[in-house]
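> run fold Sugar ABC transporter permease
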Amino acid sequence: MTPKLAFWLRRAGMYVLLTAIALVFVGPFLILLSAAFKPAGQAVFSFPPDVIPRPPVLTWVKEAWTTIPYPTYLLNSVVYVGVMVPVYIIVSALCAYPLAQMNFRGKNLIFFAILSTMFLPGEVMLLPRFLVVSQLGLADTYAGVILPGLLSAFGIFLLRQTFAGVPREVIDAARTDGCHELRIFWHVMLPAARPTLAILGIFGFISVWNSFIWPMVVLKDSAMYPIALGISYLAGVTGTDVRSLAAGTVISILPVVIFFMIMQRHVLEGMRGAVKG
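> ok
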């Protein structure tokens, strides 16, 4: 076997393996997508899978849209994302900057205390959070959903590590030029952490958009449900109607896919920066 032939065989084997892995991850989504557009006479589940609707119909999309107050749930999720994600990023950055670039007593203790909360399962914090929110009179309100999600140990950790990688000489030079800490934070640290901020924004968007357990615990009024909880409500209304449920799920996934496609360039920049670091 010639070296050139061996090279092409290895490359072909690599592409076959990658295609198989991609099908494992993309396959369920393709089945879901096809179920949302299949006519009533075409089987949803079959073997081998038949993922091509014959012909494609919008009946189930219309049914999912009208069976429940779908536009209200979408608007609620947009409000939650629009408020929580920017504030979450700003608060995480403000907490991370002093932990990375300032010297004060107990800094490491505070950082490790924050870091330790990352190892707690989210379910453990449900009851304490609900008790606090109830005592504040915020149960069954938009604020009750939003406030507990404005701070995250993961965001602080990620940005603290990024800020710690900014050369100390740059900070000292800015201080020598008369910049105060807030100006250094805004004009030096945040631009340097732009890829990390983008990654954090994507994680925050996906987390808030898919939030289910906490809104289910704190909300009673279905008019304030986010889209993930609305899909659960749709499942209860439609019962065994798989097509309508698939259509509602596809609609809820589209904003996440679009947002990720817009922001993926920043994700790749952040990954390259992490590898170089």
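Residues 3-37 form the longest helix (35 residues).
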